[in-house]
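Example S7 (structure tokens).
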């Protein structure tokens, strides 16, 4: 989200001498995207950010594809996943392609290391839990319903409160951004956008850590995690400014667009990236034409794989869906309302559904971890009772 932001102390101009009280220089770092052509921020460290004591391979990331490669509708019941590890190491990859990876984390313990994803941006939907995302740029408090955007290369740590945590993690090859059609040529969100800059939460406080010793930063790159041990604390910024930094947006601040007749999913779009989009289904009024059918019509999504994470147990067009369900409706296979849901929706005035939808433009691979929690009867769930 390209909004200029500044925290702490920065010099009057870029790339000039900026000295500490003892007369020594602060270390300036350009944190940028797309080389020198994309959004960037200028960071001012107490010490050079390059002081690495040692580097080692922590582990390779090998995601196993499902044993059954059938192209079919799937329903993965992630509520069955037990808590394990921390918010980073505890991620289970469910679906992936070259543009995106969709994982779920149910951490059992706190994160005791720093993390940098050098392979892609991260968009984390907080389904359960509270805490603080700590980063070089400062702190962002998070709560249920938050989308937290973490640009590629950001050193960060999830400081989780002592409450259950459930995180939907979307890793993106491209930069996660607000939809182009919601912005004018200057980058400002337009009047008809379903959220605005006032809803964006940026780092609010900068805590400068003046510490030396050994500090582990685990770095994801080329489908592996590497352990970097630095000689000083990575959160040693005295100040920074620019356009590239973590930020948060609550799904509860998304203002749904409604109409006389059914509005298709693009009106719910919240983010875009290279090769996929993300939509938010939130509580809203139903269509108000006297003959409107509130539930969506049947749909063949040629050219996209549709994934929905159900953030509560209510969804107007589906039966058998529970909190934490993830459905996959693959490219080219019709899907739509379950039998009986059309008639039962007639005359209803509103819905309380809450869900996150990811539409991927390239086919998604189903992981073995997803296969283990898949409902094999889901493809037949559209049959009327007498046809089963």
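Recovered sequence:
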């Amino acid at each position: 989200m390209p909004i200029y932001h500044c925290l702490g102390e920065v010099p009057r101009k870029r790339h000039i001498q900026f000295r500490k009280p003892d007369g020594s220089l602060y270390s300036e770092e350009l944190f940028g995207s797309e080389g020198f052509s994309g959004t960037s921020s200028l960071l001012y460290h107490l010490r050079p950010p390059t002081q690495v004591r040692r580097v080692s391979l922590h582990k390779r990331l090998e995601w196993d594809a499902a044993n059954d490669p059938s192209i079919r509708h799937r329903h993965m019941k992630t509520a069955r996943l037990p808590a394990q590890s921390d918010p980073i190491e505890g991620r289970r990859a469910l679906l992936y392609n070259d543009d995106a990876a969709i994982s779920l984390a149910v951490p059992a313990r706190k994160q005791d290391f720093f993390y940098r994803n050098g392979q892609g941006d991260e968009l984390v939907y907080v389904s359960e839990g509270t805490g603080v995302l700590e980063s070089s740029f400062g702190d962002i408090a998070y709560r249920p319903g938050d989308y937290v955007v973490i640009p590629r290369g950001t050193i960060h740590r999830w400081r989780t409160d002592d409450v259950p945590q459930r995180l939907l993690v979307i890793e993106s090859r491209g930069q996660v951004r607000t939809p182009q059609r919601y912005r004018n040529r200057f980058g400002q969100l337009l009047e008809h956008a379903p959220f605005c800059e006032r809803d964006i939460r940026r780092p609010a406080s900068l805590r400068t850590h003046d510490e030396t010793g050994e500090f582990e930063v685990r770095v994801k790159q080329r489908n592996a995690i590497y352990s970097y041990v630095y000689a000083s604390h990575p959160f040693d910024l005295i100040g920074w400014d620019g356009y590239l930094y973590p930020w948060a947006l609550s799904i509860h601040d998304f203002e749904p667009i409604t109409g006389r007749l059914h509005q298709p999913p693009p009106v719910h779009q919240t983010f875009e990236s290279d090769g996929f989009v993300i939509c938010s289904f939130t509580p809203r009024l139903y269509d108000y034409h006297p003959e409107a059918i509130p539930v969506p019509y049947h749909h063949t999504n040629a050219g996209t794989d549709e994934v929905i994470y159900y953030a509560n147990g209510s969804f107007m067009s589906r039966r058998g869906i529970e909190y934490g369900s993830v459905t996959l409706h693959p490219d080219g296979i019709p899907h739509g309302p379950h039998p009986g849901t059309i008639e039962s929706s007639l005359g209803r005035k509103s819905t309380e559904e809450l869900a996150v939808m990811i539409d991927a433009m390239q086919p998604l691979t189903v992981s073995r971890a997803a296969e283990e929690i898949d409902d094999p009867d889901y493809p037949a769930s559209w049959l009327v009772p007498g046809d089963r």
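Notes on this example. The CA atoms of residues 91 and 105 lie 4 Å apart.
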